[in-house]
Amino acid sequence: MPIKRILIVDDEESIQTVVQFGIQMVVDWQVLVASSGMQGIKTACDQKPDAILLDVMMPDMDGIATFKALQSDPQTAQIPVIFLTAKAQTSERRQFNDLRVSGVITKPFNSLDLPDLITKMLDW
Amino acid sequence: MPKNKRSKSNKKKQKNAVKPLFSFKNHEQAELFRQRQWVKLFAEVTFKIRQHLKFKEILNATVTEVQRILQADRVLIYQIFPDGTGRAISESVLPNYPKILDLEFPEEVFPTEYQQLYAIGRVRAIADVSARQEGLSECLIEFVHQFNIKAKMIVPILQNLNSHQQNEISSPNQLWGLLIAHHCDRPYKWLDFELELMQQLADQIGIALSQAQFLEHLEEIVEVRTAELQEVNHNLQQEINDRKQAETALRQSEEQLRLITNALPVLISYVDENQYYRFNNKAYEDWLGKSLSEICGSDIKSVWGNDCYSRMQSHVKLALLGQTITYENEILLKHGLPCSVNVTYIPDVDEHKNVKGFFSLTTDISDRKAIERMKDEFISVVSHELRTPLTSMHSALKILATGKLGSLSKDGQQILEIADDNTERLVRLVNNVLDLQRIESGEVKMEKQICNISTLMIQATETMQPMAQHHGVVLVVEPIDMNILVDSDYIVQALTNLISNAIKFSAVNGKVWLTAENRPNVEVLLSVCDEGQGIPSDKLESIFERFQQVDSSDSRRKGGTGLGLTICRNIVEQHEGKIWAESTLGKGSTFSFTLPLLNV
Q1: Residues in A touching B385 (Cβ below 8 Å)
Q2: Residues of B whose CB is below 8 A from A86
Q3: Cβ within 8 Å, pair B402-A15
């Protein structure tokens, strides 16, 4: 299995860090980080990661707007996106499903569990 | 007028004999004059009988006229009373003779045997009371002399001599009294004509008497009827007064009620079975900006509009089926201002258990709702905001615990474990707080689907199996195959909460059972049973309140959040079920809840 490249987009630096540490401790994946939606879109275009972990609640450009922007760009439209959210309501999950996101991971999560969750969600 | 010296006892003979006897011109004229007088007198008396019907007047007129025509010194009417005594009740007497009027006479003056003779029609014309051939007793002669009586004529006044008979009186010829004429200056030979006149007038008096009695009787009847009518009238008046009083009292009480209801800042109304308003307090006017006359008598749909009515309709129907209903609604006040209200419908049920309508009470709960929203929002925001740092802490500690970043001393690992355990506990707490807030605020709706109870039971058991193993507790599940309509996620959550509690409070090698039972009253009973320390009976209810635990140290020792049972209760209540706990101290506890079977 080729080395997977995961982009984590979250304005919280500590989340970026624990996600990076957690994933890399469990699997041999490359973790890219971005601190905002804009930055995330740019990195996605440049690096073409295998999957994007996108925080829903971010200032300026939130996760949904970022996701829509990614979808509208043919360069990034095919990249699977998994939302990271502190809200886990059914209505929100439905909203995410309508957006055709690949999955939703609810905070708080254990970053060591992420590779397993992602693999299952994306059928890797 | 000269006194006539002729007398005959037989009336018919006298009538036949009158004409040949008075052949002389002056006699003839005098006779004709008397005849005319007689006819006139008779006509007058008859006229008075017909006209006045006043008996006393007739009697007075009779004695006056008879006295005048007969040139008698005294004419009187003597009434005989039932005890045999009598009294002159009407009299016309010349001024130089003593009056008999109103004198009472004892029975001896007119004994019963005489009365009986007069009753069968006896008349007496006595020319000279002192004359022996007249046969008057000495005492009577003496008696009549008191009144200067020289000659007297007596005819009976009989009742019922003609058709004016009264049903009540059985005897056709009852002696009522006597018509008596006196000459006081000298004896006088009464004429047949005079006797006949007296008899005729006595008859007329009899008729007048009958008529008077008939009238009196009529008057009596009228009086009785009048009294009856007056009584009825009085009763009616009393009833009218009573009703007026009752109406006044009712009006006063209505006014008082209106005063009270108008003073209250809530909507109070009465809605009839056809959903028309029959009473509205003034708050309706103030809140809706419509006049009461516009609202009262209108149907609730037209008052509230289709949109609002669609949220009221089902509750209105239940109220009209006899159920007391309380619900919350969002309404629009005048100028389109939104308002949260609490509405209670209380059905108006008559003695035959028919629902006539319902009473409606609507209170403004906007302030409470605003505070509730703030609380929910606050909890939600805080919980969400807590999640992000928790994720970092949780992940960081887990990463540290792997030892891949460098190994810790034994003490260091113990401290790390404490941090890790408590972070997990904090995660659960945040999750529970958020769960509870969502369920309580109604933010989440139970998405009910038909599922098999056994599936849910097995799912919950499988979820809790690792924890059971960790605690060395044996988890026993006895599923039953039955379909229920529930939100499976939440029911599994309730079951895992209960199982988790049971495991926590079980000793090593203890058993925890999850059982189900189909109850006859169309519900299913799910129970989680343990062999733990048990719960004191005074805590069996309070443990379902948030942050209420049997022993506050339990919370720390067992890592609970104090919200699990409250969440369970909320989930069960959202499914119209009931939850409770039973326990024997030292033996164990059973937590049970019911769910309605396929209750849509």
Answers
A1: 86
A2: 383-385, 387-388
A3: no
Give the CA distances from residue A100 to residues A75, A82, B575, in Å, rounded to whole numbers and listed in that order: 17, 10, 32
Question: How do the domains of chain A map onto residue ranges?
Answer: 5-122
Quick one: average pLDDT of B420-433? 82
What interhelical angle do B11-21 and B192-263 show, nearest 10? 120
Specify whether the CB–CB gap between B437 and B443 falls below 8 A.
Answer: yes
B422: tokens are 């408590």
Kindly state whether B387 is in contact with chain A, defined as any CB-CB distance less than 8 angstroms: yes
Which residue has tokens 């659960």?
Answer: B428
pLDDT in tens, B212-250: 777 777 778 888 888 888 889 889 999 999 999 998 998
* Residues within 8 A of A (CB atoms), B 409-428 only: 427
How much is the mean pLDDT over chain B? 83
Reading the block at residue A5, the tokens are: 């490249």
Backbone angles phi, psi at B352, to 5 degrees: -95, 15
Instruction: Provide the pLDDT confidence category of residue B51 given band limits of 50, 70 and 90.
Output: low
Return the residue in A17, A84, A110, A113 with the most chain B beta carbons within 10 A, the one to mutate for interface testing.
A110
The residue with tokens 């009703």 is B243
The percentage of residues in chain A with a pLDDT greater than 70, rounded to a whole number, is 93
CATH number among 3.30.1340.30, 3.20.10.10, 3.10.180.10, 3.40.50.2300, domain A5-122: 3.40.50.2300
- pTM of this structure: 0.49
| Average of per-residue pLDDT across B128-138 | 80
Q: Give the span between the Cα atoms of B3 and A77, in whole angstroms.
A: 161
Structure-block tokens of residue B120: 């069968």
